[in-house]
Amino acid sequence: MNSISRRKFLKITGAVTGTVAATGVLGKFVNKSESVFAKTDDSKDGIKKIPTFCDICFWKCGAIAYLKDGKLWKIEGNPEDPLSKGRLCPRGTGGIGAHYDPDRLRSPLVRKNNRGQEEWVEVTWDEAFDVIAKKMNKIKEQYGPEAMAMFSHGIGGNFLKHTIKAFGSSNITAPSFAQCRGPRDVGFRLTFGEDVSSPERTDIENAKCIVLIGSHLGENMHNTQVQEFAAANGKGAVIIVADPRYSVAASKAKYYLPIKPGTDTALLLAWMNVIVNENLYNKEYVEKYGFGFEQFKAEIQQYTPEWAYPETGLEPETIRQTAREMSFHKPETLVHPGRHATWYGDDAQRSRAIALLNALLGSWGSKGGFFTPVSMDVPAYPYPEYPKSEKGKVDNPDHKYPFAHETITTGIREATLTGKPYPIKGWLVYATNLIHALPNEAETIQAIQNLDLMVVVDVIPSEIAGWADVVLPESVYLERYDDLNVEWFKQPFVALRQPVVESPNEQKPNWWIAKKLAEKLGLGHYFPWNHIEDYFKQRLSSAGLSFDELQKNGIIKGAKKPIYFDEGVPAEFPTPSGKIEFYSLQLAQAGFDPIPKYKRPDPPPSGYYRLLFGRAPVHSFGRTQSNRILSDMMDENEVWINENIAKQYGLKSGDYIKLKNQDGIISNKVKVKATQRIRKDCVYMVHGFGHNSKMLKHAYMKGASDSQLITKYNTDPLMGGTGMNVNFVTFETEAA
């Protein structure tokens, strides 16, 4: 490494810097003597509004940020945006806390000692790029460019993906596939030939009956869906909720079904048995668009409500009554596909059962069911062609998981551990905390120790950053441009994320990081534009759109188009049969069940309870616990325990305990929530707490980490997703 004139040793173990009053709600969080406000413009009086879109979660809601006397003041929804409709969720409204977060990364860091010790040298950007480029080129020389892999989350990773592709690697992945939505997308693809999309193509606001199976609308705060859910509820839509926990959504339901965890497919099959045998399905729709219905009908005869009763714990009459209710409102009945679908390891088949139930009701392509998303035509930037890989992707050798249409994160981790089918020696990790996102933390850490280089690009010092060789501090979304959001939705539009304020320290936007790294690697010709605004102008002008207009309004909307079959959308199904496949030819040919079958989940060991986890409306994964505004609303999680079970252990709400899983892993202490709102055979936690990164001073060791307890996982044989609801915990009351 070159000599470092401004080098100083940073051992990240000190106490949080004292805070003094600033302005408004942030006063108790921000120290004015530090550099948080150093680059804000205090010369401008009054209020200034700047449109952008949110990055607290992946939904990308249109927003308007307000500057008051040159300082970031507040943020609210953009009324022109079809996603936010002028309103942000609690997380989005609290997004300004990301800018003012004292724990955020400030300067590039290079590891001083062993990985995981969180001891760093602060360096310049140029010095950091020198370290990275030298090691990447060495990896390329010894193992080939494919030995460099990238893990990414969100639109902000687009330009870094471009750099890695230019380098010669196609090993680029996101946990959102194998750890989240992948089974759902595969199940619907196998049935209808198309994904559910993201944002989901669910027409909630027009549904007359909404069926939620472990989908926590109102807690899993996807803004548009929650607004539409509230609107549908206000119009009297029938809501059916099947969930082991009495969620916020369940409180709005006409029918709440406290289902035994892991038996969702049994309920789905029993519902379909009733609908078919009582001739309640949409016959015209099925006859016109369906394939293999007779085989399907014969297969589900065995799954009666009486059969399902001992499996699910739900009375046969309740199953029949809810099946008839959803049939009564067809095709304006929406059986929600969910999002986080990696539960038990047979999740693609469970999601396929959800797709088939919707097909019976005729909801795909119907108002109140699933619309056909539309988008604007904005051509990609005319980059040079990427180098062609001789080795191909590493994650799915011999197509072990034949229906994985995206790269599998745990497949890359496995290759890093084993060196097969070829070695992976470098990771670039963008905006995803793999320690919390991937199951079995020990496997992730072991894989990291096999690397020659790991670079983390993020806005906060997450756990994965603590294991990095180089940490690069990214500007938060209110301080940067990102790639254009050319959205697929009910109305086509293009949205712009743009800087509202400057970064307070040495943070840089992802596009700048990607471009400068490419130049260090000798790949500068892959970034022929000088500034990202030049990139925008090229793409927008080729679409006949104005960058100035987009910058001014934050959004350009296209003309509305038909989105339902009865409006003229072609009823096309890109499956092998060209129809909705009640019997899947693809699955049969690959040696899998062509029609979903029920597989009974493993029971818990004696004295243990199934660990379930989910989201909170004020936090996004594990990314926001250091945001002082959001942590002020929820600074630790709780473990939900059935009140009767809690009494057996002498526990009450507010007590602290530790959880021990089936493999002997013990959590940090966590507060008890004793409640009748959860079944006796499971417990529930909000995901993302229990941080053990010492650099996250504010969030350090607050609450418990569900991820730490997820040491076991079942892999979906169709697409490689990791079912994580297969872990069990018991209570360590004395240890707390």
Question: Which fold does the CATH topology of the domain at 202-370 and 566-589 refer to?
Answer: Dimethylsulfoxide Reductase, domain 2
Number of contiguous helices: 22
> What is the name of the CATH class of the domain at 202-370 and 566-589?
Alpha Beta
What does the largest sheet look like? 8 strands, mixed
Envelope shape = globular
Give the DSSP E fraction (strand runs of 2 or more residues): 15-25%
Helical content (DSSP H or I, runs of 4+): 25-40%
Using only C-alpha atoms, the radius of gyration works out to: 26 Å
Question: How many β-strand stretches?
Answer: 28
Spans of at least 5 consecutive residues with low confidence: 1-42
- Please give the alpha-carbon distance between the first and last residues: 46 Å
CATH architecture of the domain at 202-370 and 566-589: 3-Layer(aba) Sandwich
Q: Give the strand line-up of the largest sheet.
A: 1-6-5-16-15-14-7-8
Structural class: alpha/beta
CATH superfamily of the domain at 202-370 and 566-589: Dimethylsulfoxide Reductase, domain 2
Mean pLDDT: 93
Question: Can you describe what's shown?
Answer:
The chain has about 725 residues and is α/β, with parallel strands linked by helices. Among the domains are: about 200-370 and about 565-590, Dimethylsulfoxide Reductase, domain 2; about 610-730, Barwin-like endoglucanases. The protein contains 22 helices and 28 strands. It has an 8-stranded mixed sheet with strand order 1-6-5-16-15-14-7-8, with helices on one face. Strand 2 (about 45-55) and strand 3 (about 60-70) form a beta hairpin. Helix 13 packs across helix 15 (about 440-450). It starts with 7 loop residues before the first strand and ends with a strand. Mean pLDDT is about 95; it is low at about 1-40.
